[in-house]
From TrEMBL:
<dbReference type="InterPro" id="IPR045851">
    <property type="entry name" value="AMP-bd_C_sf"/>
</dbReference>
<feature type="domain" description="AMP-binding enzyme C-terminal">
    <location>
        <begin position="6"/>
        <end position="44"/>
    </location>
</feature>
<protein>
    <recommendedName>
        <fullName>AMP-binding enzyme C-terminal domain-containing protein</fullName>
    </recommendedName>
</protein>
<dbReference type="Pfam" id="PF13193">
    <property type="entry name" value="AMP-binding_C"/>
</dbReference>
<dbReference type="InterPro" id="IPR025110">
    <property type="entry name" value="AMP-bd_C"/>
</dbReference>
Length: 60
């Protein structure tokens, strides 16, 4: 998730909001704030880069 400049939003606020909007099995368990989302030249989100980043930061 990318925050707008000057926004004061915490991980707990996002998790609580989403929990009230979606079915229980779709609840968000973890939120990570990024400076920017990786995108291809066409503007599509590069999910493979997000997955690679997740694998490199998650302890096994």
């Amino acid at each position: 998730m990318v925050r707008q400049r000057g926004a004061r939003l915490s991980e707990d606020e996002v998790i609580t909001y989403v929990a009230g909007q979606v079915a229980p099995y779709k609840k968000v368990r973890r939120v990570e704030f990024l400076d920017s989302v990786p995108r291809a030249a066409t503007g599509k989100i590069l999910r493979r880069e997000l997955r690679a980043r997740e694998r490199s930061t998650t302890p096994r």
